[in-house]
Each structure stands twice: as C-alpha cells, then as structure tokens.
Write a structure and sequence with these properties.
This protein is an alpha/beta fold. The chain has helices spanning about 5-10, 15-25, 45-55, 70-80, 95-110, 125-130, 150-155, 180-190, 245-260, 265-275, 280-300, 325-340, 365-380; strands at about 30, 90-95, 115-120, 135-140, 160-165, 195-200, 220-225, 240-245, 315, 340, 345, 355-360. Bound molecules: pyridoxal-5'-phosphate.
C-alpha cells in the first residue's frame, strides 16, 4: 500500500531537531541544550483562567476565527507593542504559530511558485512549502550576520516569486532586523505581487532595542504570524495568531475552518488573560534570558568559538567549521564523549552546516554544567 501515499508526503523527513533528539534522548546523565521552549511555567493567572474556563463549561466550539474578545485583545496587544493596526476581522486564532504557517502557505502558494527564505532557518517552513508544490529558494545569510537584506533578496526575485519569509527574531541564530533594514526590504518589495510572511513568534524576546515588524510599513502585502508559545511559556496550550488584510483572512478562514474548526476554547480563555492582565509577562523571563545569553555567549567566545552575538529569541549559533567535522558528527561526538546535546546546524537547511544550535532556555546551573562539559571536550579532543 506504500505506493498509495502521496510522494510529496513520503519525501518529507521528520525535522532534524527531532531526529537528533530521538537518537540521544535516552543517554544517561545527558545535559541537553536542545529544546526550543521556555523553561518557565505558564504564569499562574493564565493557568487560573484556563481552569475557570473548564469550571464554567467554556468547553464548546468557538467562532472559527476565535473568540471575538481574544481577537480584539490580540489586536490591542500588537498595536500597543509594535504599532500594528489590525481589527477583529483581520486576525485568526490558530493552533500555535505552526498552524498559522500552515494555513498561510496553503492559502497563498500554488504549484511551481517560489518562496524566498533566509538560510539557515527554522525547519518548519520547507515541508509545507513543498507539500503545496511550491519551491523553497534559500538566500545565504551567513556573511551578513544571518540577516536577510534588500541587497541579498533582490537577485532572487523573479516572476515566480510568490512570497518571502522574514523569520525574525530568528530561530536558530538569534538574529533580528533593525528598523532601517526592514525599511529597505519594504522599499524593495512595495507594490510588487509578492507576499511577506513575517514570523514574529519571538517578538517579545528582543534584547537590543525593541521589536519592529515590516507590517508597520507594508500592511497590505504582509501576513504576520505570532503566538503565545514563547512569550508566555505556553507551548502546550497551542495558541497562535495570524494577522493579515481582511480580503486575505476571508480566504484563510476557510482553510482554517476545514482543518480544525477553531482553536481550543479553554486555551483561548487562558490566552485572553495572557494578552490583557499578562501583557508584560514576558519581561521577567526576558530579564533572565538576557542574563543567560551574556553568560553563555562569553563562555563560547572564551572557548575560542566564532559566534554572532544574538539580539533576540533564546538561541546561540556558534561555528564549528574549524573542527573539520560535519555538524551532525560533531553533535553526536559531543554527546558520546562529553554528555552534552546541542542541535546540529544541518537541521536548519544546508546553510546551517558547520554550526550548532544551543538553546539558553535552561537554568544558569544547567547552562554552566553543559558549557563546562563542552569546554572540556573541545580542549581534550578538538585542539
Ligand atoms: C520560528 C518559529 N516559528 C514557529 C514556531 C512554532 O511555534 P508554535 O509552538 O506556536 O507552533 C517555532 C517553534 O519553535 C519557531 O521557532
């Protein structure tokens, strides 16, 4: 029966992050710096709102686009924080940012069109692009601090270009784009028949100034993806948002409806608390991430590794080129000999080869132990 499975689905592989994690997960005494989710619990008042929803039997389907008050709260949140102007009919509450990405691509992509992405990049885009029959086109950002720029994008634009993905702050590199860089990209794309998919799931975790969205300039061409997984430590609640002009949302809502009907009612109540009384909940977590970032960055530099200093998210992406091993072999060897797990850069497209991703969504104590082991390993085996 194998031949009765769609070749496009057969051709997709499980994410390199998962693959590596599955290989090493049961090693004893392993310090893992692999996970891309906050190590803080969901804020108490958010959990209470979820419990209250259950107690009050708020357990039925909601409006397909999400509870109106939640959509209004999401609009107020992005207006206050990032100066974005959306109204209730221009937002859909999704099952995490992941489903927002899925319904976005399924609404705007068709056979043969091209999608421009930075490389290295989060591995959640390419499989969906391919399932739509579209073609991912990677732009090498390694020599530009992992940042897309108007100059880098321009040569890749042609008649088949349907969309550009701007995933900043970046997983896996921690890079962000400045207001000036966004202005130049907006200038390049303005008026062209090209969508911008701006994945801003780490927007609350910016360490250098504040977060800027290209939607503030190119609202009619932009689809903003966001959610509460990272900002409010709510990965398991599965709440994301997609903001787009109303004429596009009218089509996206059909894809969303026939896929999931609506986001979970209970999680939507919790999300309302997160975006209203908890709108600044990320601040304390951010303070701690910043402290860990300073610590871990310095440790990597002191080990002699070449690493860009991240300005957002909670990842570091040091180069391991000088060790002459593939990132997968390096990561496996590091597990075997030092008991530390990091993610091979090759999980983030071919442009991630020669790097590894460390997450600092771990306590300082865990980070210290992991980095001590890594330092010891480099001293003993790689010098
Ligand atoms: C860049 C990026 N976009 C989207 C997602 C998916 O987020 P969610 O858990 O809300 O589906 C992740 C998760 O790691 C991510 O790193």
């Amino acid at each position: 029966m194998e031949h009765l499975i769609h070749p496009r689905v057969k051709n997709i592989e499980i994410s390199g992050i998962r693959k590596f994690f599955n290989m090493v997960a049961d090693r004893p005494n392993l310090i893992s710096l692999t996970i891309g989710q906050p190590d803080f619990p969901t804020p108490e008042h958010v959990k209470e709102a979820g419990k209250e929803a259950i107690a009050n039997n708020f357990t039925t389907y909601t409006h397909n686009a999400g509870v109106p008050e939640l959509r209004q709260a999401a609009c107020r949140f992005v207006l206050e924080k990032y100066g974005l102007n959306y109204h209730e009919q221009e937002v859909i509450v999704t099952i995490g940012a992941s489903q927002a990405i899925d319904i976005t691509f399924r609404t705007i992509l068709e056979e043969g069109v091209e999608v421009i992405l930075p490389g290295p990049v989060y591995p959640g885009y390419e499989p969906i692009i391919r399932m739509c029959g579209a073609v991912p086109v990677y732009v090498d950002t390694r020599d530009n601090g992992f940042r897309l720029s108007a100059e880098l994008i321009a040569p890749y634009i042609n008649d088949r270009t349907r969309c550009i993905v701007l995933p900043y702050p970046s997983n896996p590199t921690g890079a962000t784009l400045s207001e000036q860089e966004l202005a130049k990209i907006a200038e390049l794309l303005e008026g062209r028949p090209i969508w911008i998919v701006s994945d801003e799931i780490y927007s609350e975790l910016v360490y250098d100034g504040k977060h800027h969205s290209i939607a503030a300039r190119l609202r009619n061409q932009t689809i903003v993806i966001n959610g509460l997984s990272k900002s409010h430590s709510m990965t398991g609640w599965r709440i994301g948002f997609v903001f787009a002009p109303e004429f596009l949302i009218k089509h996206m809502i059909k894809v969303h409806q026939y896929s999931v009907s609506c986001a979970t009612s209970i999680s939507q109540k919790a999300a309302f608390a997160a975006l209203t009384t908890g709108k600044d909940d990320a601040e304390e977590m951010k303070r701690q991430y910043r402290e860990r970032l300073e610590y871990a960055y310095k440790r990597l530099v002191d080990m002699g590794l070449s690493v860009e200093k991240p300005t957002g998210a909670f990842y570091l992406f040091p180069s391991i080129h000088s060790f002459g091993q593939s990132s997968f072999d390096f990561a496996l060897d590091l597990v075997d000999k030092a008991g530390v797990a990091v993610v091979p850069g090759s999980a983030f497209s071919q442009y991630g080869e020669g790097y590894v991703r460390l997450s600092y969504a771990y306590s300082l104590e865990t980070l210290k132990e992991g980095l001590d082991r890594m330092e010891q390993y480099i001293r003993q085996y790689q010098r």
